[in-house]
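User: Structure please.
Assistant: Input sequence and predicted structure:
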Amino acid sequence: MVSNGKLRTVHVVDQGGLVTARTGLPSVGPLSELIGSLISTPPLGGFGPAEAEARVWPLIDAVDDPCEDDDLQLALYLCYELHYRSFSEVSPAWEWNPTLLAARAIIESAFFGALDTEISVQSVAPQEVGDTLFRLEAEDPALSLSRQLEIKPDRGRFRELVVHHSFHLLKEADPHSWTVPRLNGAAKTALLELLGDEYGDGRPEHLRSSLYAKTMRALDLDDRENAYLEYAPGITLAAVNLISGFGLHRSRRGAAIGHLAMFEMTSAQINRRYGDALRRLGLDADATDFYDEHTAADAEHESIAAYDLAGGLALQEPDMAVDIVFGARALLYLEARFTRRLLDAWEVGETSLRRPL
């Protein structure tokens, strides 16, 4: 189990297939066990990049659906997490270790290659990027998870949803912030305007991540980062890995901006519904502040995100237009799959997590 970055040995094998890596990091198959075992050892010695590639390729070849595979996504999440606050018992030297980077590159290529196959973006005129994003938002056919919970609020289901979202929202804005030094001019100004709100405008208690932790506590959930990592299915981690992958690669800065723009554009109505659902469940401001803050701020952010940020970047760097739209569409694609997973599980009375809370 992982709790607050602490590694603790998991001693059980459950019906969901959770197995014990010798590191104490959770694993759900050979790929995540390989990565977890690797980063628990001293970074010097052991095998090198060539052997890492030789070990990873056969495991990748056995994956049918990289976008939703529990094992692949957990392995990639473990790699990316070292660039955030990491795990306390993992040596910081692993972050840029060539052996781990060689393994990560193969896992990344499988994930993003699958997305490239599913999402085709034709040429987009830079001056049309903002309008294109609004059209994508309006045409999105994804089932509305927020509407379902607003109509029929259920505490147990909401707790599961909050756990799913915790892997992103306890680090909200952090992956998008990697794009700050990669932009210039008006687009950079627009980005910093959006991120300023996410980071609480200088007030630590208003950090969106802090507000989300407060929501978790109000629902009797552990608010420490990665406390529920062993519960997360692949599609949940894929949503976080998507933006981590965009943020870590300068070549994907356009996709990172498109992702952020669509995230802001779709946020206000969704968060209003979640806040209303929690109030109908009898919960107070400790639970709803996160959603209410998003509802108020993100309604103002839509135009900034679409036109000043995404559209502004496209005008500054016309070659980025297609990447910006790809990032937005990738968010919508994975969100639709995530929604389908939750609703399918709940429809038959099952947990949407890998194991019940």
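Residues 2-118 form one domain.
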